[in-house]
Amino acid sequence: MAFELLTPDEMTEADRLTIGAGPVDGIGLMRRAGGAVADLVLSRFASAHPVHVLCGPGNNGGDGYVVARLLVESGVAVRLFATGVPRAGSDAALAAAECPVAVEPLSAFAPEPGSLVVDALYGAGLSKPLAGEVLAAVARTVEAGVPVVAVDLPSGVSGATGEVLGGAFKAAVTVTFARKKPGHLLFPGRAHCGEVIVADIGISDATVVATGTRCLENDPAWWRPLFPSPANDAHKYSRGHVGVFSGGVAATGAARLSAMAAARAGAGAVTVLSPGAALAANAAHLTSIILRRSDSLEDAIAFLDARKPAVLVYGPGLSPEPEVGRFALGLMSHASGRFGALVLDADGITSLSHQRAAFFEAAKRPMAPALVLTPHHGEFGRLFPDIAGDPSLSKLERARAAAAKANAVIVYKGPDTVIAAPDGRAAINSNGTPLLATAGSGDVLSGIVAALVAQAMPAFEAACAAVWMHAEAARRFGPGLIAEDLPLALREVVARLSV
Ligand SMILES: NC(=O)C1=CN([C@@H]2O[C@H](COP(=O)(O)OP(=O)(O)OC[C@H]3O[C@@H](n4cnc5c(N)ncnc54)[C@H](OP(=O)(O)O)[C@@H]3O)[C@@H](O)[C@H]2O)[C@@H](O)CC1
Ligand SMILES: [K+]
C-alpha cells in the first residue's frame, strides 16, 4: 500500500499524466472507477434493494452512471437520480449515454428501508456549499437511516481540506481512487467518510510521484527503516541522552511523564533538570531517571557542558510567563556543540508568544538546534496567530506554514495530528484515539519525540513515529488509560517496531 496523499489538484494532474501516457483514456479511467464502486456494492451490500445512485453533473456523476449500469447488468434493482445533465462531449456524458437506467430528478429521491445510496454527486470538483435539493437529499438519507457508499468523497467534503461545505453525506464506505486525499483524514471530513477503500484504477506509482505530492499518511511502513535500534556496543549515553526541564514544586509530574516516556522510547539516559525547590518532590518519584538541580540558565549550561545531552524537552509543567520564553531563547543561543535538538511543548510554546519575532529569528540562525514544536490547537493559535486566523488555510497548510516560519518540525496535535517539516514534507496521522484526550498525554508525546531524535532518527520521521507510537500505545492499553500508563504501554509498541 502506498501512503502518498493527493489533493484534488494533484489527482487531476495524475489523471492527466495517465491519460497522456496512454493507453487508458478518460472514459477508461471512469469505467475502472465506477467498476471498483460497483464491485464494492455487490460484495458488501448484496441484499440492498433497490440501490439509489445519485449523480452530479461532473465526472463524479460520470462514475455514478458507470456504477448504475454495472449494477443493472448484475441484476440489481437500481434507480438513478441526477442534479443536471453532463456537459456534452465529456466523459460523464459518454458514461451517461451507456447507462440504461432512466434518469429521475433528485427531488424524487426518497430512500426506503433496505435500500442503499450511492453518492456520486460531487467529488474532487466540489466548488461551493451544498444547498437546496442536494441538502434535502442528505437529510432524507439521514432520516431513512440507510447506508451510503460515497464515490471518491462524500459530497460536501472537501478533498483538499476535510472541511464540510454546507452539509455532507455520512458514508459507511468511501471508495476513492489511486490514493487517499487529505480530506479523508482531516476532520470533520474524516468523520463523514466511514471506511475508506482505495481502488487501483491504473494510475502508476511513478505518476503519483510525478504530481509532486509531499504529504503522506503517517504509517510505520515508510519511517520504520529509520527507527533506531541500539548498536551491539551501545552504552547508555550513546543510546541518546535526553534532558527534561521540570516545573516548580507543585508542577513536577509533567516532566516526569515526559522523562519516563523518553526512557521507554529507547533513550539510554534521561535527566530531569529540576528547580532546587522541587528536587525533593522529583527525587521521591524517580528511580532510573537522573535528577539534577537547575535553577538558572547558567545551571542548565553547566549541565549541557558536562553531559552534552542530545535533546532537551522544554515546556511540560512550566508556566506561560515571558521569562519562560526568554529561557528557551537562552537555551537556543547556547546550543552550539552542547545539544542537538530542542522539543518545545505546552507552556514552552505559549511563553514564546511574548517574543515571537525573537524566536523566529533565533530559530533560523545557523547554530540553532533542530526544533520540534508540539502544539495543540490553542498553543498553535498563540504562537502563530496570523496562520491560525487565516480561514483559507487547512490544518495541513497551517502546519506547513508554521513549520516554514519557525524553521521547525511542527506536530499540530488533535484527532487528526498533522506533522510538517520546514522543507514542505508533511504527514497526517490516522491512528489517533480519543483515549489520548487525557491530562499529561502531551507530555508523554514530547518525551517520545525527544528519545527518537536523541537516537539519531531525523526530526520529521521521529515526530511522525512518536505520534503513531503514542496512539498505538493508547489503543493497546484501551479504556481507563491515564497518562501514567502510556510509558509502560510503549514497551510493546517499541518491541514490535524493533523486530
Ligand atoms: N481525476 C481522476 O483521476 C479521476 C476522476 N474521477 C472522478 O471525477 C471526479 C471529479 O470530477 P470533476 O472534476 O468533474 O468534479 P465533480 O466532483 O464531478 O464536480 C464538478 C461539477 O459539480 C458542480 N458542483 C460542485 N460543487 C457543487 C455544489 N456544491 N453544488 C452544485 N454544483 C456543484 C460543478 O459546478 P461548477 O463548479 O462548475 O459550477 C461541476 O459541474 C472525481 O471525484 C472522481 O469521482 C474518476 O472518473 C476517475 C479518474
Ligand atoms: K461523491
From TrEMBL:
Gene3D superfamilies hit by this protein: 3.40.1190.20, YjeF N-terminal domain (3.40.50.10260)
Pfam families: Carb_kinase, YjeF_N
Residues annotated for AMP binding in this entry: K413, G414, P415, D416, T417, G442
Reaction catalysed by this enzyme: (6R)-NADPHX = (6S)-NADPHX; (6S)-NADPHX + ADP = AMP + phosphate + NADPH + H(+); (6R)-NADHX = (6S)-NADHX; (6S)-NADHX + ADP = AMP + phosphate + NADH + H(+)
Binding positions (K(+)): N60, D119, S155
EC number of the protein: 4.2.1.136, 5.1.99.6
Keywords of the record: ATP-binding, Isomerase, Lyase, Metal-binding, Multifunctional enzyme, NAD, NADP, Nucleotide-binding, Potassium
Top-level taxon of the source organism: Bacteria
Domain YjeF C-terminal: 219-497
Cofactor section: Mg(2+); K(+)
Cofactor binding remark: Binds 1 potassium ion per subunit.
Domain YjeF N-terminal: 11-209
Residues bound to (6S)-NADPHX: 59-63, 123-129, 152, 254, 317, 376, 443
CDD domains assigned to the protein according to its UniProt record, in alphabetical order: YXKO-related
PANTHER family named among the record's database cross-references: ATP-DEPENDENT (S)-NAD(P)H-HYDRATE DEHYDRATASE, ATP-DEPENDENT (S)-NAD(P)H-HYDRATE DEHYDRATASE FAMILY MEMBER
Subunit composition and interactions: Homotetramer.
Function: Bifunctional enzyme that catalyzes the epimerization of the S- and R-forms of NAD(P)HX and the dehydration of the S-form of NAD(P)HX at the expense of ADP, which is converted to AMP. This allows the repair of both epimers of NAD(P)HX, a damaged form of NAD(P)H that is a result of enzymatic or heat-dependent hydration.
Family: In the N-terminal section; belongs to the NnrE/AIBP family.
Family matches, as NCBIfam families: yjeF_cterm, yjeF_nterm
Name of the featured protein: Bifunctional NAD(P)H-hydrate repair enzyme
Source organism: Aminobacter niigataensis
